[in-house]
Design goal:
4-stranded parallel β-sheet; about 300 residues; globular; single chain; binds zinc ion; about 10% strand
């Protein structure tokens, strides 16, 4: 048999062998690690930093998904039923989640447990917790502590590694927090205003001493009404805000109306409810924070010229 034909024969029988064991290598069934599912991509990245290589961490919702009003599919339910642990943010972020886990016999942990909660200031969700607690790196240190505990319980053999990974990541979180506070608090007073589509930046604004203004309080309640747009235009005019922003998971159409009606520039797209694809601008949580602070700072500074 000519050499090339022999190789082809070996390859063909190898692929028959592979398909004979129901393609386990291809769909990951040969991966014996415990499976941790998170409700969205930001939590998945944080969980991966703590898990290292010991756990298989995946997000239920995909990159770019609208996570507040997400509607889980039958496929999501099947994946969740096979998971070993489910992590959710809590604070009413995932409106769909309570019903989702009700019938599942899988442990779940609320990673925001212990965070000092900020309330939503207005709108139909007024007084309820603002769910976007991960926009403070200091809060995420608590998320990490909760994950370290949850992973140690799930997989006690690697408890020391989870603790060490958590410790190292906590230090990075502290560094990013210190950087962003230094950068944003150096802006002149009138530039220290953060105007966004969703009121998703309350925790970041608190950490960095920014005044927060938004079109609507939480995605999934009434969005971009004429009253909300008028109120935002008034704020921008009164404060002389140089630039306004909108988030990657919602339309920026209403914010463009604010730009047209005022002297403010459109400062750019911020990430909060989802990471980007791996080759996009914010493949990890820490890059998301750094990216947002860069966009805010340069948007406000350049808009002020
Ligand atoms: Zn949100």
């Amino acid at each position: 048999m000519p050499k090339r034909a022999a190789v082809a024969t070996i390859l063909a029988s190898a692929s028959i062998l592979l398909s004979g064991c129901s393609g386990s290598a291809a769909n990951g069934e040969s991966d014996q690690r415990p499976v941790v599912l998170t409700t969205f991509t930001v939590l998945a990245d944080i969980a991966e930093q703590v898990a290292g290589d010991h756990l298989r961490v995946e997000s239920i919702t995909k990159v770019g998904a609208e996570i507040h009003g997400y509607e889980p599919t039958p496929g999501d339910l099947r994946r969740a039923a096979d998971a070993d642990l489910i992590l959710d943010n809590g604070l009413n972020l995932e409106a769909w989640f309570g019903q989702f886990v009700e019938d599942l016999d899988v442990p779940h942990v609320v990673v925001s447990e212990g965070v000092e909660v900020m309330s939503i200031a207005d709108g139909s969700s007024e007084g309820l917790p603002n769910p976007h607690a991960w926009m403070s790196a200091l809060n995420v240190q608590l998320y990490v502590d909760n994950m370290v505990d949850a992973f140690a319980e799930l997989d006690p053999a690697h408890a020391d590694d989870y603790a060490a990974n958590g410790e190292a990541y906590r230090a990075e979180l502290q560094q990013v927090h210190d950087e962003l506070v230094a950068e944003l608090s150096a802006l002149p007073e009138n530039e220290r205003a953060l105007v966004t589509c969703e009121g998703a930046f309350s925790y970041l604004a608190r950490d960095a001493g920014l005044t927060e203004q938004y079109l609507w309080a939480v995605n999934a309640e009434q969005q971009a009404t004429p009253q909300q747009i008028a109120r935002t235009i008034e704020f921008v005019d009164e404060q002389g805000v140089p630039a306004v922003f909108c988030e990657s998971t919602v339309s920026d159409e209403a914010m463009q109306q604010v730009v047209e009606a005022t002297d403010a520039a459109f400062g750019g797209t911020l990430y909060v409810d989802s990471l980007s694809e791996p080759d996009g601008p914010v493949p990890t949580y820490l890059e998301m924070l750094r990216h947002d602070v860069d966009v805010i700072t340069s948007g406000l500074t350049e808009g002020a010229r």
